[in-house]
Design goal:
alpha/beta, Nucleotidyltransferase, domain 5, 8 helices, 6 strands
């Protein structure tokens, strides 16, 4: 096996996990970033109000997403990029909740991705005063990125996982999770969760 995965990051319009307004993705094959993508999203109806706090964090405004595809229109694009990969995110609980809750808000079936958390991995790999994404990415040798740009954040996450795999001397994600003692979870689809 090889170190293959897709790193993902969402930005939200407000405090609702369903309010995805941007996504960033970074595909890793054999321990190297081979592709990145990112785009704006029209948040699902009922979750589409932009809070000033969120705008202040990521700079995305309501007018920026007016011509963007909706969540339902973009779910296939996310799935096409990620394929059957395990998803990695820095604070994966948040990003997996966005994926699940946006699907619930639109009635779409959430893909049953496997996932792991680079924040948990960082806590097991590095001795740092802060485990915020910029601090951990810098320790991994990835500096100077635009934090809260979804694609840049996904790329930073990818570099953290790649660096951690080197430090743990692991050449695939499952071995890395075992060595570091982190969990690889799975998103339950809305249909399975309701059954």
């Amino acid at each position: 096996m090889a170190l293959d995965f897709t790193a993902i990051d969402f930005e939200t319009a407000n405090s609702s996990n369903a309010s995805a307004c941007a996504v960033g993705l970074a595909r890793v094959r054999d321990g190297r970033v081979v592709a990145t993508a990112g785009w704006l999203i029209q948040p699902p109806a009922g979750h589409d109000r932009f809070f000033e706090l969120n705008i202040g964090i990521h700079g995305i405004r309501p007018e920026d997403v007016l011509t963007a595809k909706t969540w339902s229109e973009q779910l296939d694009d996310i799935a096409a990029f990620a394929g059957a990969d395990t998803l990695l995110a820095h604070n994966a609980g948040f990003d997996m909740a966005v994926l699940r809750r946006a699907c619930e808000a639109t009635g779409d079936i959430c893909p049953p991705y496997r996932y792991a958390c680079s924040l948990q991995l960082a806590r097991r790999t590095y001795d740092l005063p802060s485990y915020r994404l910029p601090a951990v990415a810098a320790e991994a040798g990835f500096v100077g990125f635009a934090h809260h740009d979804a694609t840049a954040d996904a790329l930073a996450c990818a570099h953290i996982v790649i660096d951690a795999a080197t430090r743990w001397q692991c050449d695939d994600l499952d071995a890395l999770a075992d060595a570091a003692g982190i969990r690889v979870g799975a998103i339950e689809s809305a249909v399975a969760a309701a059954a």
